[in-house]
Amino acid sequence: MFNYPHVGELGSAYVWVMLVAGIGLVLPFIVDRDRPSHRIMLYGITIILALRYAFWRGTETLAPVGLTVDFVASASLFLLEMCALVGSLSACVLMMRRVERSTEADTHDHWWGDREPRVAILIATYNEDLEVLQRTIVGARHLRHKNKEVLVLDDGRRDWLRDYCEAQGVRYMRRPDNKGSKAGNINHALARLAEDPEAPDFVAVLDADFVPHRGFISRSLALFHDPKVGVVQTPQHFFNADPLQNNLGLTASYPDEQRFFFDHMQASRDAWGIAICCGTSSITRYSALMEIGGMPTDSVTEDFLLSLTMQSHGYRTAYLNEPLTEGLAPEGLKEYVTQRARWCLGLMQIARSSMGPFAKNGLRLRDRWSVIDSVFYWLPSFIFRIAVVVFPLLYWYFNVIVVDAPLDEVLIYFATYYLWAQIVMNIMAPLMILPVLHDVSQLIGAIPISRAAIVGLIKPKGHPFSVTAKGGDRSRIVVQWRMMTPFAILLALTLVGLCLGIVSDRFAYNDAGDGKWVVLFWTIYNAVVLAITVIACVELPRRERHIADTPERALFEGEDGTNEVWITSLTSDTARLRGRRYPPTTRGVLEIDEVGPVEAYVITETRDGARVQLLPTEAQREALFLKFYAEDNAPGVGNVRLSAITSDLARRFSFSR
Fold first, then answer.
1. Cα–Cα nearest to 129, from 150, 149, 156, 153
2. Beta pairing partners, 154
3. What's the whole-number mean pLDDT along residues 404-408?
4. Which of 71, 198, 526, 613 gives the lowest tally of CB atoms within 10 Å of its CB?
5. pLDDT tens digits along 414-448
6. Residue 499, exposed/middle/buried by CB under 10 A (0-12, 13-18, 19+)?
7. Do residues 320 and 231 lie in contact, with contact meaning Cβ atoms separated by under 8 Å?
8. DSSP state of 97
9. Signed CA dihedral, 47, 81, 379, 484: sign only
10. Residues 77-91: what's their mean pLDDT?
């Protein structure tokens, strides 16, 4: 590496880091993220810098080879890091391409002509409350597509749900057992549909907590103009905050954990022809589904396996990157982690199945790469995340040096690669990921996910399907002590080790040289990540989910006549009015756009208006559901809001929420 003698080796290293930072400031003005050549150039440089870093790590930073604790620890961390790096390099290759199919959907709108295809909308349910199911059923009934049938597939065999479906005019199905879990439930419905006088042309799948927007069917069907398209997947958006957003007070400033995958990674996968079916919010060609024998049941992630099985039969999965459904994200941290551990387990089952990357099947090389890429995401990356917070402790307590490197080389090889990778990420996926918070999101589920990955590879069969619980009381503060304990212990060990290293050389000796500064920075960073992770384990009460916060004009007809007011907060049961004050118990009628005149009475008087209790009819309640959930827009936070995230974090960490 070229140095600048007048500033010394360390100064030269800083110059190279600042050079990369300077290039990063200019790139957004000259790079077009939709041009393949620009994407290839930026990610190609990222790969070169990553390989350069890997070579340096393997040749310059490891402990001397031998039967020593230093070498075993140093080599172990290096091996885990390189496996995680392989996953990162694979993601870089994937992200070199990208396709958006909205124009294609516009071009082939109503390609079917006069005969509208028949669509069966399958809503699989097990233990969800009526509050959760009601909005999904109402949304499915009011889809713009006319030739449709809504079916509720009840694996909970609940009579009250059967009666509700009858009242709603939707078809109810139950089966005698729960064999095959969700996939088995859908296959039972497919068998029943095959007995009907008219079989459907397409099958849409919705989770019990996902509400379709009114254009979900018509927009998605447009991509089936190609007879080789077997599945059309649309993104999943969430109308509530996920546990990390909620517990860290970032509901209005940080995107949910799945936004990067659905907004960017799926579009890139689609460009390579390896988009993934994600179950809910998808539509499948019925004839193709019956050709492959129905939904696969060899994995608890039957959706990913469906895409692979379809591909082996000559059908592909297309991805329409438009907000056409919205659902309920896991509301509790336990449910959040359980869901991701289930996804991990399912992927390992696929890797060991007949659709695995090394099995004899009809998969293309790129499909096998898709599975391997997913294995490298779930297996080494989460284990490496645990190792990152554990290995520095070996130095502070036992003087075991796992990374022996001078500070200037760390800056030249690691800092330049890491900074460049972050710059490229924020150009290609603007303000989608922040390093510290991203590490927290990985660390918080790293232990159960790593366990699921290892167990799934060793023993892929015989694991029960874990349902993600939805609904329930979320109005209290709940401390997830069991989840918090390992992170609290690691945080305490990190802080104590740091103090020991500062005040005494008895444990962490100075013979580490510059390497001690590397471990020092590494330890402080870990302390920050662990502290945030511990705080994230304190679950805060959740606000009302059925809510529209965009102010809108309305008319309130009260005892003193009709007045124009602003609705600044609207739920299915209450509304906050601004513009005119009303005393408690005042009765009247609130005229709400798209809903109509709703009877209401004032609960409390506020400084600039009133909060009213709504008394909607059943038809008006349905209209409110459609107003909240069925409009064609994306709920939640699309990317990081830098202007708000700092204040939100400061407020949360001061415990003044």
1. 156
2. 125
3. 86
4. 198
5. 999 999 999 999 999 987 888 899 999 999 999 99
6. exposed
7. no
8. -
9. negative
10. 96
Q: Give dist(CA 549, CA 576) in Å, integer.
A: 10
Report the length, in residues, of the chain.
657
Alpha-carbon span 327 to 213, nearest angstrom: 11
Q: Are residues 392 and 486 in the same domain?
A: yes
Could you tell me the pTM of the whole model? 0.91
Please, which pLDDT band fits residue 515 given cuts at 50, 70 and 90? low
Structural contact between residues 97 and 43, judged by C-beta atoms closer than 8 angstroms: no
| 3-state SS string for 151-207 | EEEECCCCHHHHHHHHHHCCEEECCCCCCCHHHHHHHHHHHHHHCCCCCCCEEEEEE
Q: How many CA atoms, within 13 angstroms, populate the side-chain half-sphere of residue 430?
A: 9
* Residue 583, token pair as written in the block: 């005393």
Q: Judge if 396 and 422 occupy the same domain.
A: yes
Instruction: Please report, rounded to a whole number, the percentage of residues in the chain having pLDDT higher than 70.
Output: 94
Residue 26: other Cβ atoms inside 10 A = 9
In the structure, what pLDDT confidence band is assigned to residue 4 with cuts at 50, 70 and 90? low
Are the C-beta atoms of residues 572 and 621 closer than 8 Å to each other? yes
Asked if residue 92 is part of any domain, the answer here is yes
List beta partners, residue 591.
555, 597
Closest CA to 234 of 271, 267, 282: 282
Answer yes or no: do 511 and 535 share one domain: yes
Q: Is residue 211 part of a domain?
A: no
Domain hosting residue 515, numbered range: 9-97+385-433+470-539
DSSP bridge pairs for 570: 548, 575
